[in-house]
Please model this.
Amino acid sequence: MRGRQVWTRRRLWGGVGCAALVVLAATLRRVGGGDGGQAQYDGPAFVVSVVGVMVSVVALLVDILRRASTSSEPGAVLRQTSDALADAVRIQWAQEARLRRLQDPKPLNVRWRWADRLLADDIRNIRRGRPVPEPRPGDDCLASIATTFVEVPSRRMVVLGSPGSGKSVLAVCCTLDLLRTRTPGTAVPVIFPLAAWDPGTTSLRAWLLERLVAEYRPLAATTDGTPLAGALLDAGLIVPVLDGFDELPPALYGIAMRRLNAELDDGMPVLVTSRTTAWRTTVACSDVLTGAEVLELLPLEFAESTSYLERTARPVRGPGDRRTTVWTPVLDSLQQDSRTPAADALLQVLTNPLMVALARTVYGDVSRDPQELLDDPRFGTTAGIEQHLLDAFVPAAFGDGDTDSRWRAADARRWLAWLARELERRESKRLAWWELYLCVPRVLRLAAPALLAQALTFVLAAPILLSSVGGDVFVFDDRPSLAANLVGNLVGFAGGLALLLPVSVTRREGRSALPRQLTVCMATAAAATLGYGLTGGSVQFGLQFGTVTDGWVAELFGGAVFGVLIALYFGVAGLARHAVPLGLPWAGSPTGRLAARSGSGALALVGFFLVTSWLLGRGLGTWPMVAGALCFAAALCLWAAAGRQGVRTGVSLGGESRIARRFVTGLLHGWAVCLLVGVAAGGTVGAVACAFSAVETSRAPDLNGRRIGEWSHRETPDGVRTVESSTEIAVILVYPQAGARPMAYPHGSRPPNCGRRCESFDTQVTFRVAQGDLRVLVDGHTADTAPIAPTAYIAADAVNMLPELSEQSRTWLAQSAARHPVEGFLLPGAMGGVLIALIGGPASGLYRALSTPSDLIRAANPQVTLRTDRMASLSRSGVVAVMTGGVCVVLAWAFASRGGLDHVAAQMWVPMGTAALALTAWGQLAVARVWLALTGRLPWRIMTFLDEAHRRGVLRQSGAHYEFRHLRMQQRLASGAEASQEDPRATVPTA
Model:
């Protein structure tokens, strides 16, 4: 049944596409065959339009009917993937072990014993008929945990212990030991924090798959239609190390246990860590873990704690020049028979590995003396000492008065307390730098990308605006028009992002994206056209695009439409409102990096050629200087990105062919969707404008034979209407290219591209409307071609001269134009849709080819992912801006006779590059930095501070994420932040 529905849907789409092709071809043929005064789309514009329509419709059919390709060697891919994953996990957790100082000098020797048999499965399910090996000396220590796990026939084991007993350290050490003895192509142990799992709503396999893809994003690639992460799980190439069963909500303990037993494949190994009390509760209300042996970590022996603290403390000179430490008097007092309550409490605390490690750090500072722990009034209980160590750890780690620290300890504790409280609010243990953007208020998250995009565009455009080139690039009649355009662009882009882009790359809309894009763009087009007409805009003459507008209101609506259009391009290209770090598509591929360097060199050569042409004055105008500077900037970014090793974008290299395939797929998809949406939105504009013009002109008075001011009105029997001036008017004529219709501009305006191809003079003019086509006749006569001279008779495009007429005169002329809805309204709307598709297709292809998520599987630390994302974002934006500029150059030439439509296209290239930077993880981090620094929640140099906290042992790294060293530390800091909530700088924003 589903197959029949799919093919029915494909036939339906095929029929719609063919029908659209026939209709558009017939329409263009009709337009191309006009005569005399009819609006004609001839020459390059007509050719580009026909080619664009043909390619776009075919692309739509191909995009709908294509089938996904499959891999030919899934077994080899899985083996390579597992080896790469093992490499990444080893690097990730070896670095974390160093930062936890597990090798300095060695981990605490935590001992263990087999737990109560009531907490484990039946021995027959565990041993599976194999004999139980005889215990060997030293088997009950931390170093033997990996060997013990391997020797359990079922390869399932549960590690229990009290809070801070070393369960997480054991999981890290066991993972590294298993990786050390692993052979290529075998299973890979991967640590999964169970605190992120919701067993009530998510199955175990779905969650494991989600976590693998989230932390190691290349595993989202597919093989035989299955994600690599799922294929690894199905093949038994993942050994889940489930850390922190007790961190699940107690109400879900039973559900979690049932899911573990029901969803773990037979023979799939697993290692689980949990607090003893939580596991007892789970077994009592549910069941044991099938096939799992259970061991329990023992409290540290006093001799082990004493030896560890003595070996890691700074030496001092004792009696008789004997070498002692600051801990020697304290430890000696603990060995006495008669002890104070504080000594008894301290003796109990030193059986906890976490507290021993904290005590080492806190009293490693020369300004502190551990003898204060023997003070009965202050530390008479175990809880009091533990809270003291947790509270003193951050100041000790950042070193009060330490010249090596860049921040005061008090500030560091306040910032870390805010982070802890934020993580508690999210019920998470992991801190990702790209998720700090979620701490920004929701309203600011919607407006910030638009604000940042405008700021970046202004930075790049400021030199152009301040130079003589500005008149050729940005044309505004006055400052209010410029301000209105910026405001409209801001509102349109922000609204477009909110309505056209998914929240994140993991929450795509699928089939609902296209209907949403159609609805939003058509509604925007209708609202803008209606608003423009109601505020005095000249829509009565059809959709003729000019650079001289009717004031700031027109610029406001125009800017809004422009912003929505840019957001549409990003939505079609697959960008999301909440970005994830990008990777370099050529990272890890020597040929890919060579290709990137070659592309950089080619861009530099093109820029050199353009700038040289401009300097030599070859008649190309001032555009070559702007385009050449852009090419040089893009070449520099691409060269720098090609020189970086970065992190990989996939466990198996796709090479240049993969980038090319993604580009072609994105190109076809972009052409198809943008054509459909563009034609629909353009048709909406034409229909609304036609209806509005019909209503407005129906009330126009009959001005035939009348004179209003200096303008005389006449109508011939065949319906040709003219409005002629009796005095001379200052006119500027611009010839876009040889053979194209000239364009007329009023005196005082700044026409674009006004070099040697324009001239101004005073003359009598006549506005003429024949069969819906509006022209201005210089000196009252018509001529198809003429030299630029004031004595010639020239017919020019009149849309920019309309402000010279009174409203009554314009309405009377529009009555004739409204009688030709196809030529004046609907067809120009369709042409605008073709223009949208021709720009959006290449942009979509490049974004899809270069938007590859960072390979967090290879991320040595968060800083690497940030640097890679920054370089990938800059190079991607530069290349997209250059290609968009190249496409716009062709379109500006092809549509030069369309009265300003070329100018609309020419303004696309800067925002297509700069606006996308606001939708990158790096750009959003910049927004978060500003907000969090201004509100005092975090310092300005966020990443430097987090790296410092990690280096000092407060945080730990898990790939590209940060975590607090222990959950108890996170909870203690969060509770301290709640206690000081009266400090406005410590409040949590509403996200």
